[in-house]
Design goal:
about 400 residues, 17 strands, homodimer, alpha/beta, about 40% helix, 6-stranded mixed sheet
């Protein structure tokens, strides 16, 4: 069963809004056995939208649109779909009452809001528990058409609560597994698994190059989940054996999660001292729930003064070597380690750009130190890129280095 | 001139990778007068890719693909485009030498890497200064077809350095301007600018609902840039007058930039004390270059112990009211304000979830305090959502509140 996601809106096609909806829906659909082969975005133009719907109905079985269900005049998804399929729209009185209830606190409800109470014949509403625009579920011939609102917060809740339970059971089961490698290039990985790629017809194996390594992705399709699982497990064992020390994660579990688990397993607490990344490492880490088991504080010391006052970096070191130096990075690290309650510390200092500091050291020069009471390592890095990408890459780099440090020292 | 972006790769269509390429390209194209009406993603399947190219050639003038230029066997974009257009591929010896040079450090270069040296007849290579896969620029009849690599770091540099200078001058000029409002709903905004929307045929005015407000976007199309500019400026003045106190930004300049500029203008320094957001506010702020003028340090105090040790929150307060309370949030704030070198401070404490703390207060309960030496305000919030969305929303909320605080008090 082929699925297609259609994102409707000029804000998407002109690059005002990043399209996270297609990503979310495709990813979720795969888990329920529906494979997305096409994603299409089209601007708010009735003729082009009609054509896009025509093309989708021709090549896909399940069509999910997002956007264009709002209260404004250029929200035309429902109207266009109804028109293309020659189906009538009629006002649903229940829905109208609900909208009045929801917007009751405003004195005058703009007339356009009641467009959202219109229902396509033979379809049913999908409840919106976050905003006012209900979704639409419609079966037409052997095709299923689902219209969802554009705002991700509304769409995601509706998708999980209202769409998934409505999807017909799929005879074809899909199962996927990824193996994440670091410290090796994509084409070398592919060479090493040439035989594995071709081993089973019903298991597709593909490699994807990532910034910090390579993902080997396996997708199995068939009617028997057990058989698929056994085959994928077999391939995984083969891959694991060939890349032992390179495998760091499965199913794209992010490196911060891997680090979290390693810390927890070794009963370690960690703290960060960040200069040019300004809390980015800490905030990425703290996205995870339960993090208090391994983390209790961090320091963002952007200025020289704050490095001295919060982390006891000496003025002499700052004057002789500069804030971006091995020496400062080590003193920042010691400053954190000398606090109570941490076993492991990481410091980051560098020049994220776009301009250098007074020392004229190059933009992209970064020092990362990692250490515990007994051992300290410092890495000097030179990254290309803009401020944002340098900040992102050093945080990623630091997380991979923390993993190595724990594996080597505990 | 209608543009279409085609993103090729199963990692996109199955939701493994977020498609930032279409977003980046559409946005950049608009600045050069090319309007993207369609974005299409298709999986690594030759037949479907061919069909997608056929559809794009039928409806669009400029077609830019990303992905499928890598060294692996499922990278088939160049081969498929050449095949569909009946054009030959031939090995370019210069490019082959460059690849050997680039990959020389590896002992055995996998044979597949040399696929990247193949050139479609009548096309030219676009230089890749970041990775090994060169792009392709091809004019075919009155259509322009451009093939770019998938990794954003490679694609973005190539797009800016190699694609933009190659694009033919466009007779139709496009000019855009956005006005960002906060504290008002989308349909009310639309009602209030009904006449403005219809004022000029060549200026399209549309509204987009955002989490913290509404964007009014104006796009002008025509042959004379001056005329368009005058009309857009006229509309902007009208809109500014109607929504005086609601306008906080233009052209989607992010709230952190607005806050940065307000701080700079008032010669103020700010510091943050973050618990449940773990450095997210700080890191968002520090993405901006030149930030040292208004910022020198921040504290991530996740545990009770760290709140006491770093910010002097009293044990009594924590015991009587809990870490998530107005009282703790104010003491965190005072703790920051009592440090040197800050005029303004912000503290955030709350329960981002997914579980509550020992007090069983609800997930999503957040206290944000903002203050200076003379005045403190505290806001109590109750957000729905998951951990990540709660963290994001409170950071956004705090930034809007900082803006208000500065406007009201300086």
């Amino acid at each position: 069963m082929k699925a297609e996601i259609i994102s409707i809106g000029t804000e998407i096609t002109t690059g005002s809004t990043l399209n996270t909806n297609s990503y979310f829906i495709s990813n979720s659909l795969l888990e329920y056995g529906f494979e997305t082969t096409h994603q299409t975005s089209v601007d708010d133009n009735i003729e082009r939208l009609k054509k896009v719907i025509e093309i989708a109905l021709d090549r896909s079985d399940l069509i999910i649109t997002t956007g264009g269900l709002g209260p404004t005049e250029d929200d035309l998804t429902k109207e266009t779909v109804a028109d293309y399929l020659n189906l009538k729209l009629k006002k649903d009185e229940d829905m109208k009452r609900k909208i009045i209830q929801l917007l009751g606190k405003y004195k005058n409800i703009p007339k356009n809001n009641f467009k959202q109470a219109n229902l396509i014949e033979n379809s049913k509403f999908l409840k919106n528990t976050v905003g006012t625009a209900p979704g639409i579920y419609l079966e037409h011939g052997d095709k299923t058409i689902i219209l969802l609102p554009g705002p991700p917060r509304e769409m995601e809740v509706m998708f999980l609560n209202e769409v998934i339970p409505n999807l017909k059971k799929n005879d074809i089961k899909i199962i996927k597994k990824s193996i994440n490698l670091t410290g090796i290039g994509e084409s070398l990985v592919e060479e090493k698994i040439k035989d594995i790629i071709k081993m089973y017809d019903d298991i597709e194996v593909a490699t994807f190059g990532k910034i910090q390594g390579v993902e080997i992705k396996m997708i199995g399709r068939g009617s028997d989940l057990n058989i698929l699982e056994n085959k994928i497990n077999h391939l995984q064992r083969l891959i694991d054996t060939r890349f032992t020390d390179k495998v760091y994660s499965y199913n794209n579990e992010p490196i911060e999660k891997i680090v979290f688990e390693l810390l927890e397993k070794n009963n370690l607490k960690i703290s960060f001292a960040e200069s040019c990344t300004g809390g980015l490492l800490s905030s990425k880490f703290i996205r995870q729930s339960g993090i208090s088991k391994v983390f209790d504080r961090s320091f963002v010391t952007y200025s020289n003064k704050s490095k001295m006052e919060e982390l006891n970096v000496s003025e002499e070191t700052l004057l002789s070597f500069g804030a971006v130096s091995k020496e400062t990075s080590i003193e920042m690290l010691k400053g954190v380690l000398n606090r109570e309650d941490t076993d492991l510390a990481v410091s980051i200092t560098g020049i994220a750009g776009p301009r250098s500091d007074s020392t004229n050291k190059p933009v992209g020069l970064i020092y990362v130190s990692i250490g515990n009471a007994n051992k300290t390592i410092t890495k000097k890095l030179e990254f290309n890129g803009n401020r944002r990408s340098i900040q992102d890459r050093v945080v990623d780099y630091a997380l991979f280095e923390i993993r190595k440090f724990i594996l080597n020292n505990y």
